[in-house]
Amino acid sequence: MEKVLPITEIEAQFKGEWVLVEDPQTNQSFEVQSGIVRYHSKDRDEVYREAVKLRPRRFAMLYLGSLPKGTAIVLLL
To answer: Which residues constitute the domain of residue 29?
Structure first.
């Protein structure tokens, strides 16, 4: 079984990368606090393809870098 890592450790290890976190533990605001890193890459599409292959039941997709100026994030609920 893979090791559950706290978000501080995930951020430190994978800075500037996209990260697929399985079974994320969240706070009341749904911010990821810990989880199992299943895949990571600087290429977002590569991480998405791996998520499709692995088909985790619960997961979070995180970007652990600075977004370029003018970038917008759209959340669909």
So the answer is: 5-63
Would strands 32-41 and 18-26 be described as parallel, antiparallel, or unpaired?
antiparallel
d(CA 72, CA 27): 24
Q: How many distinct structural domains can be found in the chain?
A: 1
The residue ranges of the chain whose pLDDT is under 50 are none
Q: Would you say 20 and 58 are in contact if contact means Cβ atoms under 8 Å apart?
A: no
Residue that the structure tokens 């292959």 belong to = 53
CA 73 to chain centroid: 15
Cα–Cα distance for residue pair 64/37, rounded to 1 Å:
13
What does the block give as tokens for 51? 């998520």
* Angstrom distance (rounded) from CA 15 to CA 65: 6
